User: What shape does this take?
Amino acid sequence: MDYQFVLNGQVLAVKAERLGDRLTLSMPTGNHVFDLVDLGNGEFLLRSDGAQRKVVAIKASSKVIVLTDCITTTFDLPSSKDGDHFGAEHGEHGDKSKVVAPMPGKVVKVLVEPGQTVEPKQKLLIVEAMKMENPLVAPFKAEVVKVNCIAGELVDSDKILIELRQIT
Amino acid sequence: MLKKILIANRGEIALRIMRAAREMNIPTVAVYSEADSVALHVLRADEAVLIGPPPATESYLRIDKLIAAAKQTGCDAVHPGYGFLAENADFAQAVVDAGLIFIGPSAESIRLLGNKLGAREMMLAAQVPIVPGGEVKSGDLEDFVELARAIGYPVLVKAASGGGGKGMRIVPAEEQLLESVEAARREAKSAFSDPTVYLERYLERPRHIEFQVIADSFGNTVHLYERECSIQRRHQKIIEETPSTALTPELRQQMGQAAVAAAKAARYTSAGTVEFLFFEGHYYFLEVNTRIQVEHPITEMTTGIDLVKEQIRIASGEKLSFAQDDIHPRGHATECRIYAEDPAIGFLPSAGRIHYLNEPSVANLRIDSGIYSGCDVPIYYDPILSKVIAYGKDREESTERMILALRDYCILGIKNNVRFLIDCLSHPEYRNGNLFTGFIDQHLPEWSEPEIGDDLPLALAGAVLAMSARQITGAEVTTGAPVSVWETLGRWEL
Assistant: This one.
């Protein structure tokens, strides 16, 4: 069975074969063999080269979240029915010119206007969530192209609030 | 003894109070907003009353609805927990006016101490040292500029009715003063319904050391020693411990006496906390928190006293069952607060569904938790999820136990600070006890979550297993849309 996972914008292709309790992963970098014990609730023991590691892995909508020794790795899943959409997302990953709401909240204040030049780390707007005011800042020197929100507006996570054009 | 208690709060503290009451055979009533209908504090309650829509201003902050819920369910007392209305004198008064008992200090004490400016004046009169600063009576922005110049930069803008870092801003120089005053006013108004702010000299590298006090209605006031809470981010504590590595026995005794004097000056009853800033061997009164504190469990671990039960006994009109000389703390206790937040991007709060939760269970470890596998963390409230408290014979053992416990504390689905806490506790300066409130900014400024590195094949193996239908049944129970809470809570005692 072939799988694709996206980590930090990079597509990882994995071929997985499962025979009983043995899982073999074939990757461009080599093969990896694990003996597994399914503990239920998304918990697995994976044994490889004599070492035994506990892994917790949960699929949640378009992501797979994996916990190994206190390190959380979130893999995005490519959209199966819409190849273009995936391409766009992939291309956009790490596109810092679109300032998005990191979580649902209320826009308290918009501090910039279209056409304005902003410096790195300059505050663009303030979003209130969980009773804290959280400033969103410019990732680099840029021109403000578009402001898509107004003070007082309730915004969902991932909504594009401000669009920037990087000045190099 | 009280007959039935309404708990005017949510999350882990509601559960903590419920547990104390249950151990005393007192039934409790939970309240909840529409966002919390399957929150753990509701599922565990003897009875639960819906009090309104998700925003706190329409539910947990509605005095009228809370009192109506208490009356309707036949309660004779109300415990406010921390946050929300815990330090609201009007609430304490309204509870009493409704013929109910408020489990906490009197409305008068809350009013006296809750106004940070009034408290400063009271301590000045009682000759307890305070941080230089003051109020701008006119409220004019120009007068703030003048006062800040007189105090000297950097200054701290603080909310007069504040707490927990809300409505607080450090101002390094005059250019930022007005913007900070305005932001602090907005935050203070939204959090405490009072936009009044004042200025204080900002001490650069202080420790935050507080003393637990407890007083009955017969004039007996006892302190239960200190808690050091210097590890903070955005002025909110994340790691607390007792005892503090900074205090000599003499200082500890002096500060304990000052704390008792402060409580007596305000005719304080119930549990409270006197906070000090500690800098170069000197202590300065900061404020009194007129509530049970988030970090109260570490005091319970070292003194053996159950503070919530004591609050309930005092509210029932009983005398303190111990005197100052009976209190002999032993060992060392550390608490870590588990928050739904992302330490890699300025501790931005996170919300959403917890798909998987595993909390460790070992000797000398206590977990006060308000979450379960499959629960949703709403955006509307403080992002605290739970608290891990580790006891040890000394600081070393307590810290080691905490690190191991956190390594076993697994939350999947929302960003959280577990890994960050481990890195704090493992820092050499933490291990040496060299703490100050700017510790995180100084020692872990550009922290980011460690990446998977060489374990990528292991993580991918996990991902493949999660993808295969046979394996995900457990997860799908929690990720699927409508699901009975009884199913997800199968292994809980209800």
